[in-house]
Amino acid sequence: MDEAVLIINTDENIVNANAAATALFGSDIVGESFETVLEQSVPSVRASDTVECSTTTGTQTFDPRVSTITGGGGQRLGLTITLIDVTDREMRRERIEVLNRILRHNVRNDLDVVLASSDRISDDDIRSTIKSTLQGTLQLSAKAREAEEVMSTVTTSPEEFDLAALARAVADEFRSGEPSGEITVEVADIQIVSHQPVVRRILDELVENALKHADTDTPRVHITVREEPDGATEVTVTDNGPGIPDFEQEAVADGRETQLKHGRGIGLWFVNWAVTQLGGEVEFDQNEPTGSIVTVRLYE
């Protein structure tokens, strides 16, 4: 898409917008205040390298360029604000940063366990620990590789598929596999145009995450698929586990891991990346009395 260009007056109201801007923010934005439309103040946009905005196709990241419009006498008449879509660039940066930290922190720690135990390999318990640790390391590496492979399909053209059938297939898979649990499905018959392998992987990750971290004898996961009044398709995965830790949610929302905020795996990161790449939104909430609710909104 071309760069979105907005012209605002000294009252910070939009007085003109090009076709790219109206496609992103709506055809009726002229006359509205800049802050109302973009949910960002002009000073904050001027001071930022990148800004996240809600658009007609979901949340996107932009590189803002702001220039002053002056009259013949040098008086300030307004501003031209150009928004350059850098969503893909920021997603790639985020992936590299998170995957590198996972490799540096989690894999390194796992190998430390192996090295520390290697001189006691004759002990059956230690040998079992080493085997389990190595298997976890290999699984983490494989999951990172698979995530990148699945995400590469977003570059292909989207196709129509039966989302309800997909949700039922995911539920059937986990009822008979490992980890397993009580999986219920409440779905409307919805056909959507999207990237089926990516949507399938999103559901797989959410259900697997719920079952893997369950702290009850009977893990329960409920999948809901429905169409919202605004035309969006909403997929919700609810569980009765311990809930997603706040630091995990904050790290995913911030778009980066730090030394003090890092998760064990890449499942939630993949979900966030994938939903954003599809132009959708993901929201985390607490279930009552216990558990988590993850809601994915997809737009066509």
Report on the architecture of this protein.
The chain contains 9 helices and 12 strands. With 300 residues, the protein is of the alpha+beta class. It folds into 2 domains: 4-85, PAS domain (Beta-Lactamase); 89-298, 2-Layer Sandwich (Heat Shock Protein 90). The strands form 3 sheets. The chain has a 5-stranded antiparallel sheet with strand order 2-1-5-4-3. A 5-stranded mixed sheet has the order 7-9-10-12-11, with helices on one face. Strand 4 (58-70) and strand 5 form a beta hairpin. Helix 4 (87-117) packs antiparallel against helix 9 (267-277). The longest helix is centred in the middle third of the chain and has 31 residues, at 87-117. The radius of gyration is 23 Å and the shape is globular. It starts with a strand and ends with a strand. The model is unreliable at 257-264 (pLDDT under 50).
Index terms:
alpha+beta, Beta-Lactamase, Heat Shock Protein 90, 2 domains, five-stranded antiparallel β-sheet, five-stranded mixed β-sheet, 12 strands
What is the molecular shape? globular
Rg:
23 Å
Weakly predicted, low-confidence segments: 257-264
CATH architecture of the largest domain: 2-Layer Sandwich
What name does the CATH topology of the largest domain carry? Heat Shock Protein 90
- The class by helix and strand makeup works out as alpha+beta
Domain tally: 2
Portion of residues in beta strands equals 25-35%
- From the structure provided, what is the oligomeric state, counting identical versus distinct chains? single chain
CA-CA gap between termini: 16 Å
Number of strands: 12
Major beta-sheet overview: 5 strands, antiparallel
Number of continuous helical runs: 9
CATH-wise, what's the superfamily of the largest domain? Histidine kinase-like ATPase, C-terminal domain
* Mean residue pLDDT: 84
Helix content: 40-55%
Q: How are helices and strands ordered from N to C?
A: EEHHHEEEHHEHEEHEEHHEE
